[in-house]
Design a protein that fits this description.
flat; 10% strand; mainly alpha; 2 domains; single chain
Length: 117
């Protein structure tokens, strides 16, 4: 499968493997958190492959965009892991936290408290 990328003043096509091979699709996950982490890791790995291609083709602007995007994803994921680890509700608290998109980041603690109660 081909994926179009932008950067460096133009559009470029790169080969991208399907997100999950047939073998991976057949996996039955015992725990939802493991599936979520696996998919997160696959997304990061795909982006690293794109970054490698971009470096080889001098597309540093697009590399920087990808790196910034994935760093933000990692920061968000780590934040959710910390919330789950420090709350009594664990991943249920995170699920409720993520579902409340109305509140701003400055209201994080209030959102967590509402989710736990």
């Amino acid at each position: 499968m081909m994926k179009e990328i932008r950067g460096g003043g133009g559009r470029h096509l790169v080969h991208k493997k399907k997100n999950a091979s047939k073998k991976e699709k057949d996996v039955t996950w015992r725990f939802k958190g493991n599936r979520v982490q696996f998919e997160f890791n696959e997304d990061i790995a795909d982006s690293l492959k794109q970054i490698d291609w971009c470096i080889g083709h001098g597309k540093t602007g697009y590399c920087r965009e990808l790196i910034a995007e994935k760093m933000a994803n990692i920061k968000k994921r780590n934040k959710l892991i910390r919330i789950a680890d420090t709350s009594e509700g664990g991943l249920d608290t995170v699920k409720l936290y993520e579902s409340n998109h109305v509140a701003s980041d400055s209201e994080d603690e209030a959102r967590i408290n509402r989710a736990e109660n």
